[in-house]
Amino acid sequence: MRFRHGPLSIGAMLLPLLAVFAACQQGGEGSGDAASDAPREEISITAVYTGSEQKAFEAVLDDFMKTNPGIEVKYRSAGDELPTVLETAVRGGNPPDLAMLPQPGVVADFAGRGELQPLDFAREAVADNLGEYAVQLGTVDGDFYGFLVLTNNGSPIWYNVDLFEQAGVNPPATWEELLETAETLKASGVSTYSFGGADGWTLSAIFENIYLRTAGPEKYDQLAKHEIPWTHPSVKEALQYMAQLFEDPDNIAGGPQGALETDFPTSVTQVFSEPPEAALTIIADFAYGVITDSTSAKPVSDFNVFDFPSIEGSEPAVVGGGDSVVMFTDSEAARALVEYLTTVEAAQTIVTEGPWSSLHTGLDPSVYPDPIRRGTGAGLLEAETFRFYLADLQPPEFGATVGQGLWKFFQDFLLDPNDIDGTAAKMEKAAAEAFE
Q1: Is 423:230 a contact under the CB 8 Å cutoff?
Q2: Structural domain that includes position 146
Q3: CA nearest to 332, candidates 27, 61, 132, 41
Q4: What's the structural domain count of the chain?
Q5: What is the largest CA-CA distance in the chain?
Q6: Which candidate, 115, 415, 165, places its Cα nearest to that of 302?
Q7: Beta-ladder partners of 101
Q8: pLDDT digits (tens, 9 = 90+) for 40-50
Q9: Model confidence over 263-314: pLDDT tens digits?
Q10: How large is the C-alpha radius of gyration of the chain?
Q11: Is residue 233 part of a domain?
């Protein structure tokens, strides 16, 4: 059963009833049309989604409107031009009521300029349903401005089931087992790793997974805010672990240089092509769609997934990303939609209709439509720690920007994994300039 949420819920429910009552009192005809004739408050929301993702997100909005019949939500797709579209709308004094933003840094930027309305009315619901980190992530200067609605798990490792069986290996649970598995796979005649190095974020995510496990969430948060330098021993330790994946060029599909010429989708499909070029790839849960859309591989029997391994006994942890809802214009209708997006009902539609996951602690993983996504979705809920992609928490010139900053430094590190001190020094120099 779905419930109404937000200040308009009672009014939206009573208005049609009162209209029907009044019509009956007057003895008039056509009283059944009163509800449809009632005025509806219109609000707008802008996001990147197009195609099947737009259809899935609109299903969430449709569910909201069914439970809040006094509100109409108009969706606008801005595609990859979302930042430009929003910036133009804000400068023109005509922003959407709400938007879905893909990076916490963008949320902080709009909030810092006074363009966003606080969501403090939803803070308690977000903390209860999505966790304190979701509140922390969306808090700027003490006020709460956004929270993750759609999430991805950035910690799975996708593997070719056939190649693992031929090599006689099982999915590893620890870092040591991963390295041993890589040696066995290589000996069986196949490269272990497929890296999409042309997209620097794929390499950054590997470091982020390692760092969260070796340094822990407190240092992860400190590094994200540049409260400790990138030359810190914890950073160098994580780079040493990362170097172990890169140090054998013959165990990387195409070698290091070939990996730098391989984009994210190709790094996934070449693990499941005929013949396969590698046995595994370390990519977020949205790789599922690439595999099913671009290869003939079947879930579980042909491709499967295991969690990023524990390092030195580290507890289960997940890095990931997602889109946060923010409010440009405050109204009862906008607040009602924000509050709805904190509910398990919204979370269920998100994971069943779209390619996304959810952090909602009340979500039963069994609602995910297939066993692979069920496992990655459960991984989000069962992990001891969740942290947003580190690069996305940095100033853009240092973090998530093509051809520079962290993404470029990790691409260089793939070619020269022995240069740990030099890599850390370059990162710290760029970070210090970005945080000035």
Answers
A1: no
A2: 50-153+319-388
A3: 41
A4: 1
A5: 87
A6: 165
A7: 324
A8: 899 999 999 99
A9: 999 999 999 999 999 999 999 999 999 999 999 999 999 999 999 999 999 9
A10: 24
A11: no
